[in-house]
Amino acid sequence: MSNFYERVYENVKKIPKGRVATYGTIAAMCGNPRASRSVGAALHRNPSPGVVPCHRVVFTNGTLAKNYAFGGSSAQKELLKSEGISFLRDGRVDIKKNVWLPWIS
DNA sequence: GGACTGACACTGG
DNA sequence: ACCAGTGCCAGTC
Question: Cys-Cys with A95: which of A20, A34, A62, A65 at CB 3.0–4.6 Å?
Fold first, then answer.
């Protein structure tokens, strides 16, 4: 059951389109800002395709997960670009402009 | 109940 | 600005 994981999925679902959130943020929403690791594990375990936009979850530095469960960071990057997310020349997300703050939304 | 693992985050060099 | 090491949490074996 893992109530914690379900909570993570719910939080990720709340991420608005065209915006990204960091693992730390999701963990904070879940109640444990330090559980960022468990958040990533949850997404990799049960991505719930079409239900949980796991592609909107990125690192605090704007980098993408190399082991993305769907098609690698490449697919994730494309998805984000489709949502209108700005990318830097380095290939990482412009976290500075696209990061979503739940308490601000 | 104990130990290992993982899509992270932070600090230091 | 980049790489390496350490800490945290929850889950699974």
Answer: A62
Find and list the nucleotides of strand C having atoms within 7 Å of a protein beta carbon.
2, 7-12
What pairs with residue A93 in β-bridges?
A87
pLDDT at A1 over 80: no
Alpha-helix runs per DSSP H in A1-105 = 3-13, 23-30, 36-45, 72-83, 95-98
Q: In this predicted model, what pLDDT tens digit does every residue of A31-79 receive, in sequence order?
A: 999 999 999 999 999 899 899 999 999 999 999 999 999 999 999 999 9
* Measured CA A89 to C1' B11 distance, in angstroms: 27
- Is the Cα torsion angle A93, A46, A16, A27 positive or negative in sign? negative
Residue written as token pair 């290939």? A91
Q: Which 34-73 positions of A have CB less than 7 A from strand C?
A: 34-38, 41-42, 45
